[in-house]
Amino acid sequence: EAQVTQNPRYLITVTGKKLTVTCSQNMNHEYMSWYRQDPGLGLRQIYYSMNVEVTDKGDVPEGYKVSRKEKRNFPLILESPSPNQTSLYFCASKPGHGGYGYTFGSGTRLTVV
Amino acid sequence: GIQVEQSPPDLILQEGANSTLRCNFSDSVNNLQWFHQNPWGQLINLFYIPSGTKQNGRLSATTVATERYSLLYISSSQTTDSGVYFCAVIRGTDKLIFGTGTRLQVFP
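ok -> structure tokens follow
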């Protein structure tokens, strides 16, 4: 089944403890992106990647890192999580630039205490 | 930047009713998608519809790009249709810009 897989689905962690949220797609998509969703603020783009080794900042990149060493994987790294990074995170992918729609992962609900 | 507004913000229906959700956007866009966020928080892609009309079962969507709006039709609504419906436009570096959402509640 064609899908975007995120792990974990739920995570509670403590301030300052490094964590990684994994994202993997099995559709050979070039374009991948991370979004966070917060009440009253909607969904905002964190980082995106147009292809392997090509990444760029979105609207809210502070406190996050990404890497794209393989086409299928696009992990989101929080080096030193803080409570304001408590959010619902989504990974998404699409075939390439232009006329294609996005496929979203199931989301990761992160709580930083 | 581009504004994406959805109406109505909230909608309460009884099972079996029909509804129309609207998405207005303030500038030209490359593409448009409709999503359903279910009560568990998952974002489900409903339609990729930069223009024209598409149908999938009880759902259909129409985008009139020249007039900068899109409509999502839900017929014979079911309780499983409950959740938040988002339209999102794609601009520039393929970034999705989400609308404000319509929260739908369907009661038996």
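Chain A has a mean pLDDT of 95.
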